[in-house]
Amino acid sequence: MRILFFILSIGLFASVANSQSNVLPAKPQTAPIYIKNATIHVGNGKVIENGTIKIVEGKIAEVGADVAVPAGANVTDAKGKHVYPGLVLASSNLGLVEISSVRASSDVREMGDMNPSVRSIVAYNTDSKVINTLRSNGVLMANIVPQGSLLAGSSSVVQLDAWNWKDASYATDEGMHLYMPMMMARPRFGRGGGGGGRMGGGPDGNTDPVKADLQKVEEVKSFFREAKAYNAATTHEETNLKLEAVKNLFTKKQKLYVHASTVRQMLVAIDFIKEFGFEVVIVGGSESYQIADLLKQHNVSVILQQPHSLPTGEDDDVDQPYKTAAALQKAGVLFAISDDDSQTRGRNLAFNAGTAAAYGLGKEEALAAITLNAAKMLGVGDKTGSIEVGKDANIVISEGDLLDMKSSNVTDAFIQGRKIDLSDKQKQLNDRYNQKYNLKKPF
After folding, report:
1. Contact 258/279 with Cβ under 8 angstroms?
2. CATH code for 87-384?
3. Which of 187, 294, 359, 412 fits a 20 to 30 Å CA distance from 394?
């Protein structure tokens, strides 16, 4: 049976690999491009009606309602359409996992607890079929994150139109990722799936799980103390790659992304700020609304990883995940919205923000949570995230409201001024069977 399963898995993976969508990276921009007659959502809260954008050499040269368009220019008429900054997926395993059930297509996790020298960017696969489906929904950038049990390694921001990972890299090794232990007893499930009793932290099931997890936290702190001393020294007899890998955390050239959902996990994350002075970003943060003022006090940012989910606490409002973004906004906490659903793989990013807009956020504030806020958090806010002069021309044009699942229809997209192909495997299959059965296209 194992041999049969292996053969079937390889066959499935091969069939997916052979069914490549024929989409090539766009060539560099050569002449100025104008996008005119558009409703421009700048990304910083401003909206320009009947506006024009001038793009030169991949950069936004002019934007406003009074930009002159010369005769014979390369013009994209966006009359009746909406123009947005390219969306930024703040936390993703994009390009690291293709088919989760096929082990050969997953390169997202290394063995062991302490892997700070792991770099996700070198494993990023620009030929992933998932990438093009994200571009079709306006996602033009993503933060590629490694997984692990404790210190998992560094993430990098990529733009989604590239030949290889070197072309894709937008901000390399910009963050280190720590997966915070739960520090609570886990439920133990029987063979039939029913619950019963509690599970300990050790292999024999008898170890106190809270004590075991606190020990793991102390191991991480001890590692950072050693790394601080190591990197403060001017010379070393031997090079320690793991200690070298975290040196930028101490100079704040790199952020510490702490994957944490509960209040107790986030309080421990704040301890890392107090002891080491790290710049911390919480990833997950489902209970962050409970300590929003404390997070603001310590300048902690939050990536709400999956707003379309059930609440963490039994006593929480059933719609609490939808309202958390508005609570953070009210407290002044810098936050971004992501899409961590294993089924949508990031495609619902805009619609997650749309849900937050329906539960207390303003529409432009919700847009900022997946554009400018995310870019600032990832250290690329000076280059992207909004449609402002001097920034890269990462732009999306939609016939309807990009945050509305019913009306959103992305017609054009630009990455660094290159007009990219919005074809993807799903669209190609749709066209294939429309032709086979002589069906009418839905749009």
Report:
1. no
2. 3.20.20.140
3. 359
Instruction: Say whether 87-384 and 26-86+385-443 share the same fold.
Output: no
- C-alpha dist (Å) from residue 178 to 116, 147, 164, 192: 9, 9, 27, 33
Structure tokens of 315?
Answer: 């006593």
Give me the residues of the chain with pLDDT under 50, please.
1-20, 188-201
The model carries a pTM of 0.89
In one-letter notation, the amino acid at residue 5 is F
CA–CA separation, 291 vs 285, rounded Å? 10
Q: What b/e readout covers 213-227, taking b as 16+ CB neighbours within 10 angstroms?
A: beebbeebeebbeeb
Strands 186-189 and 195-199: antiparallel
What local confidence, expressed as pLDDT, does residue 18 receive?
Answer: 44
* CB-neighbour burial class of residue 178 (10 A; exposed 0-12, middle 13-18, buried 19+): buried
Among 301, 362, 287, which Cα is nearest to 332's? 301
DSSP 8-state code for residue 290: G
| Chain segment 399-428, per-residue pLDDT in tens | 999 999 999 999 999 999 999 999 888 888
CA distances to 180, 295, 319, 340 from 311, rounded to whole Å, are 19, 20, 7, 15
Domain spans in the chain, listed from the N-terminal domain onward = 26-86+385-443, 87-384
**Per-residue pLDDT reduced to its tens digit, 233-291:** 988 889 999 999 999 999 999 999 999 999 999 999 999 999 999 999 999 999 999 99
The amino acid sitting at 322 is Y
| 332: amino acid identity, one letter | G
pLDDT score, position 259? 97
Task: Name the residue among 46, 39, 66 with its Cα closest to residue 54.
Answer: 66
